[in-house]
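Reply to thread "Modeling small-molecule complexes from scratch"

Following up on the discussion above, here's a worked example others can learn from. I took a protein sequence and the SMILES for pyridoxal-5'-phosphate and predicted the complex. Inputs first:
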Amino acid sequence: MSEYLLLDYQKRKRVSEPASILDFTDGNFYFEWKEPFSIEKINTYLPGLWRYAKWLPVDFSQFNTMGEGYTPLIQLKFFGKEIFVKQEQLFPTGSYKDRGASVMIRAAIEQGVKHIIQDSSGNAGCAVAAYAARAGISCEIFVPESTSPDKLTQIAAYGARLNKIKGDRTATAKAALQASKSHYYASHCYNPFFYEGTKTFAFETVEQLGWKAPDAVVLPAGNGTLIIGAYLGFKHLLSSGVIDKMPRIIGVQARNCAPLFQQWKGVETSSQFEDTLAEGIAIPFPIRAKQMIAIIEETKGAFITVSETQIKDTLRACIQNGFYIEPTSAATIAGLEEAFEIFNKKNWVTLFSGHGLKSSAKINALINT
Ligand SMILES: *Cc1c(COP(=O)(O)O)cnc(C)c1O
């Protein structure tokens, strides 16, 4: 008997097996675990996030790991309050996307996949390309033609083939969906294995807090790979009796591109969005929007927006304290100011989502203005 179920949030149904295990292009698939989480069953001898292999729908393998996960949780002070900050910029590819990519690529290997496709010009593309390279799977990344060469260097260096598509981000997504009819779609948005990886953020946080749930968690809100993953992780710990409450989940968006905040508030969603320094969360049409909004409501959290000035000031403050993070990561930290005002809570957790070394040109322009 399988230890987990595959469900589809969008269609509100259980699917024991998808029509084709390769077809994750339609629906909002996610896993629900029957095997309870138990502290005794953690494999402490396995590297990083693989200590939780018992509750991952794949096996641990030396062939694609880089020792990713179990990032440090340190206490810092922002806006006059102490908060635990998970150092997710310290992953092998420079962002927490490694959580999802390492598990998803492992699943692809187990399904006998030899070639994967993905569409992302940012950190998800880097992570998928890196773990595919590590596993010896060929990888093709679809990017908009207009993507700056800077971001493509890391992806191409791993050996992934870049497929540049004319038009906007939507045209690129369409091209990837089309290609996914004949190839494995290793999408960080659609593929449920990715969320099985990101859920380990919750496991690690709770373990590092001495098996206690935080009162509130402040996370970036773009496509929701972390919000949904963390939610699944906390939920599993709660249903297993490891923690006794769900933390409030608070999602931060850039004010210039805040479709989730707008939908959650019930205001008219604009279809025109402006550029933002927080490019990693500038997602005009998140395909899992409904699922993310339901999570914020169920956990009695909130969506918060931050201005470009807030992002810039916070980025400067973080770097001048020794934390070289990317501008997108500063948006989440900037959101703490309002989160602290709305919720009078004691135990807070947030993260530095990505490393600054990839964005040095952008950071250089910012700190000199
Ligand atoms: C992907 C990413 C985010 C946003 O995550 P979503 O999954 O899109 O919600 C935030 N920061 C960094 C550095 C990222 O790479």
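What I'd highlight from this example: The longest strand covers residues 138-144. Residues 39 and 207 are 9 Å apart (CA to CA). Questions welcome below.
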